[in-house]
């Protein structure tokens, strides 16, 4: 089996990948993550996932490189990482009583052959009615400023949900393991 590389510096994605009990290394890809003009959200996450994997191909020439990218979509608006209290507060209040779609792009690149697989795994979160006080308490407790959508599903953020729907809950955290296993199996990786 070619060695695995996770093209991400995200501790959340590393934690998820550890569940597969496969040895891997990780590296932070240096790419421009800007959205192209009028680029649909699904196309954006697919493109960025593959670009992240390709960014490490020279450094890891005989590897299976995993790239992933995620956006949250509320209506027609793409919600990025808030990076601070005010933007996180605005995002959560806008999501109150509504549904937010999380689109996670996933790519597996065989850097030796150039072959790649790319997919987008959707997941929907239906939010409870949220008021200013609840949002402020949550943000103070968890400070999810590095998370698309302004919450941590693997933590206290779940208290903000009324329901979720999707085929792979790990996609909500940023690395859809069910789809990744499909891709790895297609490359001949044995799991377990």
Oligomer: single chain
Roughly how much helix do the residues carry, as a percent range? 25-40%
* Total beta strands: 7
Average predicted confidence as pLDDT: 95
Tally the helices. Answer: 6
Radius of gyration (CA) equals 17 Å
- H and E order: EHEHEEHEEHEHH
> Which residues form runs of ≥5 with pLDDT under 50?
none
N→C terminal distance: 13 Å
Shape: elongated
- Which structural class do you get from the secondary structure elements? alpha/beta
Largest sheet: 7 strands, mixed
Proportion of beta-strand residues: 25-35%
Describe the 3D structure.
This protein is an alpha/beta fold and 192 residues long. 31% of the residues lie in helices and 27% in strands. The chain is built from six helices and seven strands; from the N terminus they run E-H-E-H-E-E-H-E-E-H-E-H-H. It has helices at 11-18, 41-55, 85-95, 132-142, 170-173, 177-186, and strands at residues 4-7, 24-27, 64-74, 77-79, 99-110, 116-127, 161-166. Strands 1, 2, 3, 4, 5, 6 and 7 form a seven-stranded mixed beta sheet that branches. Strand 3 (64-74) and strand 4 (77-79) form a beta hairpin. Helix 3 crosses helix 4 (132-142). The mean pLDDT is 95.
Tell me briefly what this model is:
This protein is an alpha/beta fold and 192 residues long.
Write the topology of this structure:
Elements: E1 4-7, H1 11-18, E2 24-27, H2 41-55, E3 64-74, E4 77-79, H3 85-95, E5 99-110, E6 116-127, H4 132-142, E7 161-166, H5 170-173, H6 177-186
Parallel strand pairs: 1-2, 1-3
Antiparallel strand pairs: 3-4, 3-5, 5-6, 6-7
Helix pairs in contact: 3-4
